[in-house]
Design a protein that fits this description.
alpha+beta
Length: 236
């Protein structure tokens, strides 16, 4: 029992990851089980009881650490699973679902106990997940703003969001409509229609500037032939 306890101490002193702590716990358990087999009334029974009193708190300490490591590993695995789901959603352009998964990953990572072998890695992931969640939430908000501009009351544009800028491209049907109304009203001197067209374009410009401001990103506007028509900058 004493030799087994010495081995348990050695394993405990170098334990880092979950399997190490499980091995140290098992070794302490063997030492205690051995002592418990010593019958009462023998010459070493009293000493065995003293060793038991000494070993049992050590086993409890190692058992607690093992349990803590198990919990940390379980939660860490959950976090990485949500991380994979979030990345897959982003690749499929499902940013709302990605934001949900990043939030779950962040929550899981924040629940990993301190003082374990993966605490440092967990802290790194908390920082990373916070950034990825913010990015996903930003994209969701930008997409919502762009949907309101591009699809109301009818589709007028498509959009692309990159890390550098937002790109808005007018659809051909919208361009034809604006050109037709503008040209006809100017040719016929229809001041009311000309005013409505100009007001619409001004309102559209204000809406796109608001999208740029809210996103904190430059916004570029292209016609259906991919020619740059203009650009907005945050605060511009």
């Amino acid at each position: 029992a004493r030799k087994t306890a010495e081995l348990a101490i050695a394993r405990q002193n170098v334990a880092q990851k979950l399997p190490d702590w499980q091995q140290a716990q098992a070794t302490w358990q063997v030492a205690i089980n051995t002592l418990q087999q010593i019958p009462s009334g023998t010459t070493v029974y009293a000493e065995a009881q003293q060793l038991l009193a000494s070993y049992q708190p050590k086993l409890a300490t190692v058992r607690d650490r093992t349990t803590k490591e198990q919990l940390a590993q379980k939660v860490y695995t959950q976090a990485t699973t949500y991380e994979k789901q979030a990345k897959a959603s982003q690749q499929n352009n499902q940013w709302s679902q990605a934001a949900v998964s990043w939030q779950k990953a962040l929550t899981a990572a924040q629940q990993i106990p301190t003082g374990t072998s993966i605490t440092e890695s967990a802290q790194t992931r908390v920082a990373d997940y916070t950034g990825f969640l913010k990015q996903a939430q930003t994209v969701v908000k930008i997409r919502g703003d762009l949907e309101r501009v591009c699809l109301a009351p009818e589709k007028i544009c498509d959009y692309t969001i990159t890390n550098e800028a937002i790109q808005v491209k007018f659809v051909p049907a919208y361009e034809r409509k604006v050109r037709t109304l503008g040209g006809m009203s100017q040719f016929s001197g229809d001041q009311e229609t000309m005013y409505r067209v100009n007001s619409h374009l001004a309102s559209l410009g204000n809406a796109l500037q608001a999208v740029s401001n809210n996103a904190g990103m430059p916004l570029q506007v292209y016609n259906s032939d991919n020619q740059l028509l203009g650009a907005f900058v945050p605060g511009g």
